[in-house]
Amino acid sequence: MAFSPLYKSAPKAAQLDAALYELLVLIDAIRAGRARERAFAIKVLQQKLDAYAKTTESEPRNIDACC
């Protein structure tokens, strides 16, 4: 099954960033996979997002820094 990338620049960016490539593979599995593949991709993606959230929870946030 062929489908368009989420963004035009996504394939090039994924070639330069292994972590991004892994995330995009999971998204593609959710978009086009069968039920078992989708369920697995959702589980792994949720684990990655949870792990990321835990690493950023302890970091101080300066909301004024962005503006």
Provide a count of the helices: 3
- In terms of structural class, how would the helical and strand content be classed? mainly alpha
Mean pLDDT: 86
What is the N-to-C succession of helices and strands? HHH
Helical fraction equals 55-70%
Cα gyration radius (Å): 15 Å
Silhouette: extended
Strand residue content: under 5%
Distance between the termini: 43 Å
Poorly predicted spans:
none
Protein model, in words:
It is a single chain. With 67 residues, the chain is an all-alpha fold. Helix 1 (10-16) packs across helix 2 and helix 2 (18-32) runs antiparallel to helix 3. It is 67% helix and 0% strand. The mean pLDDT is 86. The termini are far apart. It has a domain at 10-55. The relative contact order is 0.10. The chain has helices spanning 10-16, 18-32, 35-57. The chain has 3 helices and no strands.
Task: Name the features.
67 residues, mainly alpha
Short description:
The protein is mostly helical and 67 residues long. Helices cover 67% and strands 0% of the residues. The protein has a domain at 10-55.
Question: How would you summarize the topology of this molecule?
Answer:
Elements: H1 10-16, H2 18-32, H3 35-57
